[in-house]
Amino acid sequence: MESARAVSTPRLIQLAVASLLLGSLAGCASQSVEIRSLPPDTPAADNAAAALIATELAGALASESASTASAKDAAAPPLVTPADAPSMATYDPWARLNRFTYRFNARFDEAVFLRVANGYRRLPSPLRSGVHNFFGNLAEVDNIINYVLQARPIRGLRSAARLLINSTIGIGGLIDVAKQIKLPAAPTGVSATLATWGVHPGPYLVIPLVGPSTLRDGIGLVGDFGAAHAVNLANLYRGNESWYLEGVNLVDQRANVDFRYYASGSPFEYETLRFLYVRKRLIEDSGLRKFAQPRPARPEVPAGE
Amino acid sequence: MSKMPTRLVVCALLLSLSAAAFASAPADAPIVDASALPAAAGPPTGLADSAALRATVFGTPPQDMAPLPETVPLSEINIALPWARPVPAVYWFDRRLRVWISAQKKPAPLAIVIAGTGGDGNTSKLSILRGALYAAGYHVLTMPSPTFPGFIVSTSSTGVSGDLMQDSRDLYAAIVQILAKLPRRIQITDIDILGYSLGGANAAVVKSIDAGEHKLHIHRALMINPPVSLIESVSRLDKLFVTSIGPDDAAVERLYRQLYAQLANLYRASDKVELDESFLLGAAASVLKTDAEYSAAIALSFRLNLVDMFFAADLYTGAGVVTNPRHPPKVGDSLENAARRLRSMPFAAYFSRVFAPYYLKHRANATSASLIADNRLDIIADALRTDGDYYALTNSDDLILDAPELRWLQDTLGPRIVVYDHGGHLGNLGDRQQVKDMLEMLAGRWNLPAL
Questions:
Q1: B80 CB near a chain A CB, below 8 Å?
Q2: Domain assignment of residue A15, yes or no
């Protein structure tokens, strides 16, 4: 109490701001009711999108059943059997820290990240897709590098063609022209490269602000970031502007993820996400190593190790 | 730049797989002491046939959907309720009840919509109903099921969800609070209430409570695919779990291994760079093809909802089934063992170990048999029969009903129920005819057939 009197006014303002931030992070809003306006529901568009997927799906199933007999058997990868499935337990030696980070992420998302992303979602959709395409186009540089490192030259060429077409005809990447001429995006990265050469996902890892990940994916993230900086396309990655750019990228990414922490209401959310995330990555890994000898199933080893 | 939140995307997607493929499930009704029930003969799925199971899993085909509006304004309301009980540490994020409102700009009737078992106040099914109702000129308030963990923690006065009357009382009290706190600009001319699955039964009971308390003057109530006996409906799902998956956790692991292998093979045969939503939707269509697979998806989805109800009730009552009442789990503790043990426990276990002991202690003269009887729509049978403002929509092949229960609904509601030939459980929610009938019933334009 004594020392409080000695604090100068600007310092008080700083303290107030800090405690406001902390307060919002701690989620201790004080009124008993809070009404928050959200981006509108778009049921018509959602249903149209679902109809489109259903149509494509029906087409794909039809063409698949027509072609299975002829083409597939020659080069079919060995089948994964139920015995090859990883254990239902997940390798999570840093669980305590991970749970802490998960809670931090949830609070930060609720107090800041999601609010900003919801504001962004109110912008006109052509503007948002322009921003999204722009960052997707920049990522092609990393894709090219990694496809080369994965010894997948065709995919690398595809990424290079996309970069070339979208940067020119697509006005600096704002429009995904390549997709319209049947060259859809195929993002990859350092983690996928590591997986291609047999690196396991390793321990489960919740990364601040990013969310569920694994050690390998975390390293991959740093690698992708480093590659983009090293290449420094159009000099976008140096100087103060790069911070703004990275910020917009983060918001754009968040706004495109339909996820809300603890929307499940469930205390098992951490366990559920961990389970699903690692299984998803392991299936993707097995897709990268289609012809590699499947790892012998070891039910006693938790998934990811 | 980095591709960072693809990680989050992924998780959202996988959640939506469990929510999409596994989840159109009979979000239904709680509790059962299967052993207390006569072993029902016949199939474990009520009236369902193969088409009904399929419709239940995949929902209304998009091309059959009623026209929906381009945009619907949306706000969320987070409200702290004055009677809230102390929140167990592991539920730190569930202190407030969260509901969603879409308000018209002019005075309009309010439609309150309640989710089915385990659903929050913003499920995709609620979103469909919200679109249809908003387009028809209603303010729309969507509420979670009283069995949703967020509701149990923030709103339930017991912590033990699944009792039709108690849950509906909590729901009613919460609605009274919410409406009192709505901004003045939302002008309400009339109030109707509806819900799907268990939410339908809740809606009807809420209206009957209001008829005694007169706090809201709810006008009409509509039940969409409601259960008649919560206990019987759920025992059907218990049985479905055992027949389609198996009796224990080893069976769950078998199902997991089989699904994992199927997904991995589909993925390896595809050209996808990511296991994303469109892949999962396609995979669901080719993984879920037989009655056994539909049944497994429905039963598992239901069981996962039960895990959450069971855990909350165990914690609140100190029953000690998977938690230690003296040392309740703290924030940051692993809940993996609790989840694993609960996965293999049926509703019968919830009923006998948590639900019945709690209500036998807190309700005078209650017996196991009376608890089962109290969880039937019979408790409001008089109102359903005599008050012309109760309506229902259901399907003749809804797997949560059997023939006598369907007949009971028809006898009780008379001309105020429509029974469609197909759709299983909620497999036609939002289709053109269903939406048309729903709107006519709620608006009081339902043409009673000339007798």
A1: yes
A2: no
pLDDT of residue A64: 62
B286 touches chain A (CB under 8 A): yes
**Number of domains observed in the structure of chain A:** 1
Q: Which of B3, B260, B379, B270 is nearest to A139 (CA)?
A: B3
Q: What is the enclosing helix (H) or strand (E) of A129?
A: helix A125-149
Chain B residue at shortest CA distance from A280: B275
Q: B-chain residues within 8 Å CB-CB of A72?
A: 269
Total Cβ atoms within 10 A of residue B53: 27
Over residues B258-294, the pLDDT tens digits come to 999 999 999 988 888 888 877 888 888 888 888 988 9
Inter-chain CB proximity B260 and A279 less than 8 Å: yes
In a domain, A43, yes or no: no
Q: Residue B81 and residue B277: Cα distance in Å, rounded?
A: 37
Whether B153 and A265 lie within 8 Å, measured CB to CB: yes
**pTM (2 decimals)?**
0.89
Torsion of Cα atoms, A47 then A52 then A54 then A59, to 10°? 170
Interchain CB contact of A249 with B (< 8 Å): yes
Q: Which residues contact B15 (CB under 8 A, 6 or more apart)?
A: A259, A264, A272, A273, A276
Q: For the segment B92-113, what is each residue's pLDDT rounded down to a tens digit?
A: 999 999 999 999 999 999 999 9
Decide if B282 and A57 are in contact by the 8 Å CB cutoff: yes
Domain range for A99 is: 80-288
Cα–Cα distance measured from residue A87 to residue B246, given in angstroms and rounded to the nearest whole number: 19
How far does the CA of residue A239 sit from the closest CA of chain B (Å)? 15
The answer to the question of residue A27 being in a domain is: no
- At the second CATH level, the architecture of B1-247+288-451 is 3-Layer(aba) Sandwich (3.40)
pLDDT for the residue A54: 80
Beta strand B188-196 with B108-114: parallel, antiparallel or unpaired?
parallel
CA angle A259, A262, A268 (to 5 degrees): 115
Q: Chain B within 8 Å of A108 (Cβ-Cβ)?
A: no
- Answer yes or no: do A277 and B264 touch at CB < 8 A: no
Residue B7 has its nearest CB partner, among A81, A95, A210, at A210
Identify the three-state secondary structure at position A53.
Answer: helix
> Hey, are the CB atoms on B11 and A284 less than 8 Å from each other?
no
Strands ordered across the beta sheet of B97-102: A33-41, B72-79, B97-102, B139-143, B108-114, B188-196, B218-224, B390-395, B417-420
Min distance B160 CA to chain A CA atoms (Å): 15
ipTM above 0.85, yes or no: yes
Chain A: closest CA distance from residue B11 (Å): 6
Q: Which of residues 225-244 of A touch B (CB under 8 A)?
A: 225, 228
Q: Please list every residue in chain A whose beta carbon sits closer than 8 Å to the beta carbon of residue B253.
A: 88
With respect to residue A266, please indicate whether it lies within any of the assigned structural domains.
yes
Instruction: Judge: B282–A60 Cβ closer than 8 Å, yes or no.
Output: yes
Pairing label, strands B188-196, B218-224 = parallel
Chain B, window 250-279: residues with a beta carbon less than 8 angstroms from a chain A beta carbon: 253-254, 256-258, 260-261, 263-265, 267-270, 272-275, 278
Q: Is A74 on the interface with B (CB under 8 A)?
A: no
Closest by Cα among B218, B14, B237 to B118: B237
What pLDDT tens digit does each residue of chain B (451 aa) get?
333 334 444 444 444 444 444 333 444 433 333 344 434 445 566 777 899 999 999 899 999 999 999 999 999 999 999 998 899 999 999 999 999 999 999 999 999 999 999 999 999 999 999 999 999 999 999 999 999 999 999 999 999 999 999 999 999 999 999 999 999 999 999 999 999 999 999 999 999 999 999 999 999 999 999 999 998 899 999 999 999 999 888 999 999 999 999 999 999 888 888 888 778 888 888 888 889 889 999 999 999 999 999 999 999 999 999 999 999 999 999 999 999 999 999 999 999 999 999 999 999 999 999 999 999 999 999 999 999 999 999 999 999 999 999 999 999 999 999 999 999 999 999 999 999 999 999 999 987 655 4
